[in-house]
Amino acid sequence: MTWTDDDVRSALAGDHAVAAAEAIAAAAGFPGDGLTTDGREWAETHGVPPDDLIDEALRRVRDLCADETDEATLTELRDLRFRLGDALAQ
């Protein structure tokens, strides 16, 4: 299945928020190790996402960080958060 922009936005609000945020970061030029196949395909065909989508992903990842108790997962989420922040700063 190839993701659409609507799929990515919907995924940010649901159980696939990290995968969607990874795809957004990758499309913005800041890929990470957690990029899924669907996310990679979307990123490669999408181009640079608009700032509002990057910001939405960043806010969602911040929320996930606040709720996370597993240190390894928190480290991965923080890396993603920093990459999204770098994308917004461009």
What features would you describe in this structure?
- The protein has 90 residues and is an all-alpha fold.
- It has one domain (5-89).
- Helices cover 73% and strands 0% of the residues.
- The chain has five helices and no strands.
- It has helices at residues 5-13, 17-27, 37-46, 51-67, 71-89.
- α2 (17-27) crosses α4, α2 (17-27) runs parallel beside α5 and α4 runs antiparallel to α5 (71-89).
- It is globular.
- 36% of the residues are buried.
Number of strands: 0
Structural class: mainly alpha
**What does the average pLDDT come to?**
94
Q: How many separate helices?
A: 5
Segments where pLDDT lies below 50 for 5+ residues?
none
Radius of gyration: 12 Å
Separation of the first and last Cα atoms: 31 Å
Total count of domains? 1
The description of the largest β-sheet is: none
Along the chain, the helix and strand elements come as HHHHH
* Large-scale geometry: globular
Helicity level:
over 70%
- Strand composition percent: under 5%
